[in-house]
Write a structure and sequence with these properties.
mainly alpha, 48% helix, 2 domains, single chain, 434 Repressor (Amino-terminal Domain)
Length: 170
C-alpha cells in the first residue's frame, strides 16, 4: 500500500498506463498539458514539484490528499503567493487575536521551520510539506491553484498617446 504522495502518484500512473511505460506516461502527460519528462520522473517514484504533482493527480482523477478517486480535470499551476498569504493570515490571526509564533506552528503542523518560512514568503516547497500545511490549516491544496491570469493593464484596442517635447525649453 503506497504511503507517500509520490508513491500514490506512481501507482496511479502505473495503473493508467502499461505498468508505467515511459512513452505512454509521457503521452498521457502531454495530452493533459504537463511536461512528459516530469511525468516520467513521477512514474519512477522520483519527487516532482508540488504544482506538477497536483496537476498530474487532477488529470488522473486522484485526490492529492487521500489518494482516492475524484473527477479528472485540468488544473492550472499553484499560486505560491496564495500559500504565503494564507500562512501569514494564520500566523498573524484576525484583529484582536493573539498571533501564533512560527516555531509553534511549525511544530504543531510537523513542518520544518525553514519550510514554513519558505511557504510564508511565497516560495515553493515539496508536496509533502504542502500537504502537511493544508492538513494543519484544514484546507484542500486546490485552494491554492491559480484560477485565471491577472487582467491586462489595457484593452487591446486602446492605445497610449505619446506627446513629444520637440521645441520646448527644459
Amino acid at each position: 500500500m503506497p504511503v507517500t504522495p509520490i508513491q500514490r502518484l506512481k501507482a496511479a500512473l502505473c495503473d493508467r498506463t502499461s505498468g508505467g511505460s515511459l512513452p505512454e506516461v509521457a503521452a498521457f502527460a502531454r495530452a493533459n498539458g504537463i511536461n512528459g519528462r516530469i511525468a516520467n520522473r513521477a512514474s519512477r517514484g522520483i519527487e516532482i514539484n508540488a504544482s506538477d504533482y497536483l496537476r498530474l493527480c487532477a488529470a488522473l482523477g486522484l485526490c492529492p490528499v487521500t489518494g482516492g478517486p475524484t473527477e479528472p480535470k485540468a488544473l492550472g499551476p499553484l499560486d505560491w503567493r496564495l500559500v504565503g498569504l494564507k500562512v501569514c493570515v494564520t500566523l498573524i490571526g484576525s484583529p484582536g487575536d493573539k498571533h501564533m509564533p512560527m516555531r509553534k506552528a511549525a511544530k504543531s503542523w510537523r513542518i520544518a521551520l525553514a519550510a514554513l518560512a519558505r511557504m510564508k514568503s511565497g516560495q515553493p516547497v515539496s508536496i509533502d510539506n504542502l500537504l502537511k500545511l493544508c492538513r494543519g490549516l484544514g484546507v484542500h491544496p486546490h485552494m491554492f491553484i491559480q484560477r485565471r491570469p491577472p487582467p491586462p493593464m489595457f484593452h487591446g484596442e486602446q492605445s497610449v498617446e505619446q506627446k513629444s517635447n520637440e521645441g520646448r525649453a527644459a
